[in-house]
Amino acid sequence: MRIAIGGAGIAGLAAAAFFARVGHNVLVYDKAPKPTPVGSGLIIQPTGQAALAALGSLDDLAKCGARLERLDGRLECGRKVLDVRYDALGPDIFGLSVHRSALFDCLHDAAREAGVIFSYGQEVVGAESVGDSVRLRFADGEVSPSAALVVDALGLRTPFVERENCYLDYGALWANVPFPSVGGFSERALAQRYQGASISAGVMPIGALPDSDGPMAAFFWTLRPQNYESWLMTPLPRWKDRVLTLWPEAAPVLDQISSHEDFILAQYAHHTAPAPVNGRIVHIGDAWHAASPQLGQGANMALLDAWALSLALERHETVEAALAAFAKMRGRHVWLYQTISRLFTPVYQSDSKLLPALRDKLAEPLSDFWFMPKLLASMVSGTLGEPLKGLKPS
What we know:
Radius of gyration: 21 Å
Number of domains: 1
CATH topology: FAD/NAD(P)-binding domain
CATH architecture: 3-Layer(bba) Sandwich
Structural class: alpha/beta
Number of strands: 20
């Protein structure tokens, strides 16, 4: 069938590649003038790895990523308040830490090689039904060819879902730096430091970039988006002193940062669309379920959405039956992780005094319970709720 996809981000590219590989005629529309990855580091969890393996792209991405074995979060005094080890789930379980551009390029190549047709510079503003078909409307007044299905992968700002202001109070600054050879950092661990819930910093290995001479890391710093302009006016040495007060060991990382322009600002939001399906329009990724990336699940959830939708179309004779099956396949997992994100984000990103105080007091004692290492690893890895059940071959 002909399938029109709005949005050439992670969700849209993955869906396009999955659809085209099994013979669908896929057209992707994006308002950017050319392929444009946006963002910094991210973790491909075991769930996302399974989707990429099904697509045949995991090995290529793994070549430029870093094997992440644990998450190590500490207070400025050095006491642990977050200790997640993937091997609690098994010896071969790990996160694949990459730069977003590496994932984007991997999916874009897979989609292009599968025969997907891309149309850039086309801003989707709506859709209209034509009999049993639907076509997209663009900002310039043009419309797309009729399609049997429209996939909304346009993200949080999709015109197909009404949303009031759902942005969270805190976002983060991100910069890419050569991985520090000193300071005690591990290329297999994401390290973070916290002061309450409003101040935090992190160093995450992200493997190699096309123009890098060696392994790279992503450095991030919590910031209110409304304070971004003020931060830009702050002399960089003064800001670095603030970071070093929290985390002296981060000096070799900060030494690699020479300008405010080395950073990008990421804004986070939380919202779930009332339903993933509206007629022959289906929402995937952030267009359906946007959340704080505290658990690193955004890209992974999008990959699972794309995989599940492709499988549903293969397994059912009608579009309607396939969309109903897709909603059932993904609904429970989406609800679970939206709930987890809503509960845990204020513990690490908020102005609350009570929540981080409870975190700091209870984190170590709770970690001694026998079930906690596996539970934490399951939450972070995205495997809580068994989302791969029904996706992987039995």
